[in-house]
Amino acid sequence: MGASSPEYRWLWPSALAADPAGPLAARRSTRDWAVDSLCFLLAIAFTAWIVVELLDPASETAKTWGTTPIWLTAVDAVASTIAAIGLWWRRRFLTALAVYSLLLTTFSMASALTQLIVVFTVGVHRRFAVLAGYTALVIAANAVFAVARPEGGLGYWEAFGWGAAINVVAALWAMIIRGRRQLIVTWRDRAERAESEQRLRVAQARVLERTRIAREMHDVLAHRISLLSLHAGALEFRPGAPPEEIAGAAAVVRSSAHQALQDLRVVIGVLRTGQPEDEQTPERPQPTLSALPTLADESRSAGNRVRLQINADPESVPAATGRAAYRIVQEGLTNARKHAHGAAVRVVVDGEPGEGLSIEVRNPMPVTVPARPIPGTGMGLIGLAERALLAGGRLDHGRVDDDFVLTAWLPWPP
């Protein structure tokens, strides 16, 4: 329900503000049924008891308050009964019930308990400003009641003080209940917000992880497929090669295709469905600097002349830095096979703890464009630059004299 609902139209315009502690539900809960029934029964019982006491001249109430005219007792009984019945709908029609009870307070004795329940309800379901204003009006009505129906044995100020104190106690009790409800609502909102933020963080982590896997897919598959293309091309253009060479090239094609399919199956499976954290299989070890000689041998078998020089201890390089360095060298060799097939490629990896790890991949610029160039996405170097940036390093590439040079620097903490 919004702030413009009828139950929010209170004694003055400022009371129309939304109240997070006391929105009135369209349907009552089991607790609401129990509380409303108890309030209704107590108010009816109190009204009946006071009316019976006033009608009996020998009762203590009649002796204390003096003889009450029959007509006033009848009016009090009827009006207080209506107010007690109205408690059943006190949440939905609180404004009308509060105004009606306020008028009864000026002369009615039988509606005293009903009035306290109304004050308590206002305190629970309305803002403090509304409660304070209404309590002040009830105290003013009590001042009128103390004059209209003085209590025997008590002075005016004493009778007025007792009535005001009881209403203030009811208002304070309602404020405590309201504050507790607001605190519970705040805790619930915070818990729901924290849960929503946690779900968002999990979703973001999954997206980042899938993006990382997509980059890995590009790096791995581009390397595998470039080998496939080169060896398949050799088979196509040299049909009369010796059987040993044909068998070797076919073995490389079969092995590379098998590995590429395995990598692709894993990547596509993760990107399509994703696995819950408790069902994930252990991730395969990612290659680092120690795998560079194997990578260079694969490129040599594809026809490139690779000279690899590693001036750093691969075992002492941090795992994250080693993985990033491996992918950079892998992409550099893949580009060399695509654009300068058969050219000499020089790879230098150098670095020390505290100074960082430097990588250089250099190959001559191609003189002619291959008749059937290996297709690519054109995003390899962009992905490498992003990978180096995420690792805290940098990557540059371009033409230097007659060579194409790919250089990178990655941090290596001391």
Automatic annotation (TrEMBL):
<feature type="transmembrane region" description="Helical">
    <location>
        <begin position="96"/>
        <end position="122"/>
    </location>
</feature>
<keyword id="KW-0472">Membrane</keyword>
<keyword id="KW-0808">Transferase</keyword>
<keyword id="KW-1133">Transmembrane helix</keyword>
<keyword id="KW-0902">Two-component regulatory system</keyword>
<keyword id="KW-0597">Phosphoprotein</keyword>
<protein>
    <recommendedName>
        <fullName>histidine kinase</fullName>
        <ecNumber>2.7.13.3</ecNumber>
    </recommendedName>
</protein>
<feature type="transmembrane region" description="Helical">
    <location>
        <begin position="70"/>
        <end position="89"/>
    </location>
</feature>
<dbReference type="InterPro" id="IPR050482">
    <property type="entry name" value="Sensor_HK_TwoCompSys"/>
</dbReference>
<keyword id="KW-0067">ATP-binding</keyword>
<dbReference type="GO" id="GO:0016301">
    <property type="term" value="F:kinase activity"/>
</dbReference>
<keyword id="KW-0418">Kinase</keyword>
<feature type="domain" description="Signal transduction histidine kinase subgroup 3 dimerisation and phosphoacceptor">
    <location>
        <begin position="209"/>
        <end position="274"/>
    </location>
</feature>
<feature type="transmembrane region" description="Helical">
    <location>
        <begin position="33"/>
        <end position="50"/>
    </location>
</feature>
<feature type="transmembrane region" description="Helical">
    <location>
        <begin position="159"/>
        <end position="176"/>
    </location>
</feature>
<feature type="region of interest" description="Disordered">
    <location>
        <begin position="274"/>
        <end position="294"/>
    </location>
</feature>
<keyword id="KW-0547">Nucleotide-binding</keyword>
<dbReference type="InterPro" id="IPR011712">
    <property type="entry name" value="Sig_transdc_His_kin_sub3_dim/P"/>
</dbReference>
<dbReference type="InterPro" id="IPR036890">
    <property type="entry name" value="HATPase_C_sf"/>
</dbReference>
<dbReference type="Pfam" id="PF07730">
    <property type="entry name" value="HisKA_3"/>
</dbReference>
<feature type="transmembrane region" description="Helical">
    <location>
        <begin position="128"/>
        <end position="147"/>
    </location>
</feature>
<keyword id="KW-0812">Transmembrane</keyword>
